[in-house]
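Hi all, long-time lurker, first post. I run a small reading group and we've been trying to get comfortable going from sequence to structure in the token notation. Rather than ask abstract questions, I figured I'd post a concrete chain and ask someone more experienced to write out its structure so we can walk through it together at our next meeting. Sequence below, copied exactly:
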Amino acid sequence: MRYLAWVRNGWVGISWAGISWFGISWVIQCLPVGAQSADDWKVCKNADLSVEPEVAIKACDKIQNIDGLKKQDRVLAIFYFARGFEDKKDYDRALIEYSQVVELDPGLAEAYIGRGTAYVEKGEFDRGIREYTRSLEIRKRVSAFYGRGRAYKKKGETAKAVADYRAALALDPNHETAKNSKAALKELGATH
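-- Answer (accepted) --
Happy to help. Here is the structure in token form:
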């Protein structure tokens, strides 16, 4: 994995190529310079899943409790905190934390994707579908189409699942999650 870091106007930026929550991609993350270190943020984000969820959760908790942390940074720390619980398969706690993110930043589409995933993993497919749909109203994301398609598939609504898997592929056919959509379509006997 290759990293590139820079400091500009009080922010440290880190970019790397690797696996992110939404698949393989180039990720650029800007982090504030200050009391929390880039290492804390890296552990909190846990993009490469190199640390146990419990370790990531502790790093996120440390960051989000820093006095004077900017709102946007607190939102990110809580988002990754929620994702740590999702990685740990503690979907109830993940939902609580993702809901806090939505309350602080209702325009963050990824928080609705997180809630959608947690609901689907709990078997609450209709609630998951609503969360994915809300995410798509904010911003079209391959992972939202794929997640909603997965929920429809689990509900037995094959036509809707196929439509969402196709939408994911149309949005970005090279995205790792879109490749999952392609496999799901094949499994359903549909063409892309």
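A couple of things your group might point at:
DSSP finds nine helices and three strands in the chain.
The mean pLDDT is 83.
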